[in-house]
Amino acid sequence: MPRLYVSVCLFVVCFIHLAAAQQNRNEELIKKNLAQHEYELSSDGKNFLSNAARNASFFLLGELHGENEIPELLHQLWPVMWRDGYRYIAGELSPWAANRMEFATPDQQPKLMTLWTQPEVSFVHSFGGSRPVLWGCDMEEFQTQLLIRDLATANPQNPTLREMQGTIKSGYKRNMAHDLLALSRSLSGIHDPSVNGIPLLNNIQSTLEIDEYRLNPDTKFSAQLRRESLMKELFLEHYHQNISPQSQEKIMLRFGRNHLHRGYDVRGISTLGNFIAEFAFAQHKTVFNVAAFGAGGKASLAGETWDADERNDDLAFALFASSARYSATVFDLQPLRQLLHRIPAEERSPEQQRLAFWADSYDAIICYKDVTPRN
Which of 8, 133, 197, 285 is the most exposed place for a label (fewest CB within 10 A)? Predict the structure, then answer.
C-alpha cells in the first residue's frame, strides 16, 4: 500500500509539474506573439490599419470617449480610407445631431453636445462636398428639447406640440419622458420632416422610449436592449437608403468600444458589432474591427473628467499595456487568436481567458499609454 501511495503521489507531482511547464510555455508563446505583432500607431500601425481597411468593406472603430487621441486617429485615417472607397461613417449620435452638425450654418447652429466635435464633423464632411457623410445611428442623449422645438416649428399651429414645448421650456429632463412620449403618440396629420434620412418624430419617440425605460431600475436592461436595437435599425435604414446592391462604397462605424465586439460582450447586450459582422457576411463582404483602450491619462465629457487608466479593469488590458513598446501601440490580434485557440479552454489561465475574449471580439487593439481629455 505505501508503495502504491508513493507511486500515485509521484504521478500527481509529475502531472502538476508538466501542466505548470506547459502553462509557462504558453505564456512565453503569447508574449512572443504580442511582440512580433505590435506596431507603432504613428508609423507602421497606421499603415497596418489603412491596409486592413482597404481589404474590408466595413471598418469598425470601437473608441474611447472624451479624449483627443481617437479624433486625431480619425484625422489620419479618413483621407486614406476615402481614397480607398469609404464614403460614410455611422456614428454614435442621433440623426438630428448628425444633420445639424454636417449642414447647419453657424447662425442656425445651437451649441450642441455630442460625442463628435464640430471640427471632426466638418473634416469628414469636407471630403463629400454637398453629399452627407455622417449617419446618425443612436438616440439623442443630450438635447432632446431641440428636436421637439424643431418639430413644433415645422407645425406651428399644432396644440399638442405647443403643449410639449411648454413642458420643455426650461430644458429637458428624463423624468419628462413618460408624459412627452404619450403626447407624441397622440400626434396625427403633422408635417414630419426627414432629418439625416430619418423622420424627426421617430427620432424623438425612440429617445423618449429609451429614457422612460431608464427611469425604472427594473427596466434598465430593457433600455439597453432597446437602444442597441435602435442602433441596428438606424444603420439598416441608412444603408438601404444610400447603398445599392451593386455599390462598392464602404462604411466606417465609430462607436464606443463595448458596442462593436464581434460576438457578445460580457453583458450580452452590446451586439451592434456582431450584427454588422453577420450583415457583412450576408452581403458577401468583410469586416475589420479595432478597439482602443487607455493605460493612463484623463478623459472628459459633458463636464465630467475621469481617470482613463483601464489596466485594472481587465487582465488582458494589463498585459497589453505591459507589452506595448510605444506611446500608442497597435496589436494585431488575429495571430494571437489562432494561438489561444490551440490552448484547450479548460486549461487557459484567467489572463488567457480574457485575451481570448478580446482576440475573438476584435481583429486589433490600440493601447494608448496616456490619453488627454477632450476640450
Answer: 8
